[in-house]
Specification:
Largest sheet: 8 strands, parallel, barrel
Number of domains: 1
Number of strands: 10
Shape: globular
Radius of gyration: 20 Å
Bound molecules: NADP nicotinamide-adenine-dinucleotide phosphate
Number of helices: 13
CATH superfamily: NADP-dependent oxidoreductase domain
Strand order of the largest sheet: 3-4-5-6-7-8-9-10
Order of helices and strands: HEEEHEHEHEHEHEHEHHHHEHH
Length: 332
């Protein structure tokens, strides 16, 4: 949205930033999953690059997951490909010892390399062994593989759902056409979740599928919600994103787009300061307002604290609207 800031927003822009309060436990906010009786929390921890998988990082990784449990996070996202199975194993270890209990929502993913019906069951069994569970709450197809017809994979997943080894079926990185094809291939259930890259600067893929998901009651999970730390203020003071980040998010951090994105992110940081909230509060609650549930990454316990604290501070709608316009480049 464009136009002049409201008097309230101008007042906020002059007001001194509030000091962050003590870290509160994540509010237990959730929506019902369209399949089964479980609820889907609105904020989750993703375990992709967590700890980077070297042996000495494992203690920090476990501490990060444990901190999330302590802070009230109840949705954990992993995948068979993350750390070649280490992510699932570490999550299983921590959850077994923690008090997250049965209400934790554990989501894992079937690799794009294992979509043939003969591979699906074996992949799930290996994931369940690593997680130390008899069933997974939501099982996502990590990404489609054009060589394997989607209906074949869906039939194999539905069989596992009937056996009770999967609570609900979902997908990730699917186009609208692929979503429709997946949905049509299910007979006794429906797609419960779609996980898609979605943040203030990265919207295209999500916006192409949001109306369909809304219409079908599919929960939209937003990955990379913090734009790899950019929406925490990282890279705004001259430091350049390291090669692995640039490589992962080429669109965002490519040479041609980066200066513009950094300028907009600086404007967002000012907006957040004026509103007395962390920049990450704007990033996370903007997604929530779009109807998506953010799954953030964190590689150390303090990052979990900061993200949970950011979630606990919901910016007013007019601030989120201004953020939307700034991120789209419609306002300075
Ligand atoms: N379905 C898919 O294909 C797919 C693809 C990507 C991700 N995902 C899922 O989504 C999750 C999140 O994705 P993501 O890791 O790209 O998301 P993200 O939340 O945008 O980025 C996470 C990174 O931001 C930095 N960060 C987090 N909290 C911070 C803080 N308080 N202050 C400063 N920096 C902070 C950390 O970087 P450092 O670790 O460098 O400090 C962290 O690793 C993944 O873990 C995974 O579960 C799914």
């Amino acid at each position: 949205m464009s136009g002049k800031p409201s008097p309230r927003a101008r007042h906020r822009a002059r007001a001194p930033a509030r000091r962050p309060g003590p870290v509160a436990p994540a509010p237990e906010e959730s929506v019902p999953l369209p399949v089964g009786s479980k609820r889907h929390p609105l904020l989750g921890l993703g375990l992709w690059a967590l700890g980077r998988w070297s042996a000495e990082d494992e203690a920090r990784t476990k501490a990060t997951i444990a901190r999330a449990v302590e802070r009230g996070v109840r949705w954990f996202d992993t995948a068979e490909v993350y750390g070649a199975g280490r992510s699932e194993r570490l999550l299983g270890d921590v959850l077994r010892r923690a008090t997250a209990g049965p209400e934790a929502l554990v989501v894992t993913k079937l690799s794009w390399e294992h979509l043939r019906p003969s591979q699906v069951r074996a992949s799930l069994v290996r994931s369940l062994e690593r997680l130390g569970r008899s069933a997974v709450d939501v099982y996502l197809v990590h990404a489609p593989d054009r060589r394997v017809p989607i209906p074949e994979t869906m039939a194999a997943l539905e069989e596992l759902l009937r056996e009770g080894r999967i609570g609900a079926i979902g997908v990730s990185n699917f186009s609208l056409e692929q979503l429709e094809e997946g949905a049509a291939a299910l007979h006794g259930t429906q797609l419960a979740v779609h996980q898609v890259r979605y943040n203030l600067f990265d919207r295209e893929e999500a916006e192409a599928v949001l109306p369909y998901c809304r219409e079908q009651g599919i929960v939209v999970e937003a990955y990379t919600p913090l734009a790899r730390g950019l929406l925490h203020g990282r890279y705004l003071d001259g430091r350049r994103p390291p090669p692995e980040v640039r490589q992962y998010a080429q669109d965002l951090f490519g040479e041609s787009r980066l200066p513009g994105i950094v300028a907009r992110a600086r404007a967002l940081r000012e907006l957040a300061a004026g509103a007395g909230v962390p920049l990450a509060s704007i990033a996370l609650h903007w997604l929530r307002r779009q109807g998506a549930a953010p799954v953030f990454g964190a590689s150390r316990p303090e990052q979990v604290d900061q993200n949970v604290a950011a979630w606990a501070q919901r910016p007013p709608d007019d601030v989120l609207e201004q953020a939307d316009a700034i991120a789209r480049g419609e306002r300075a």
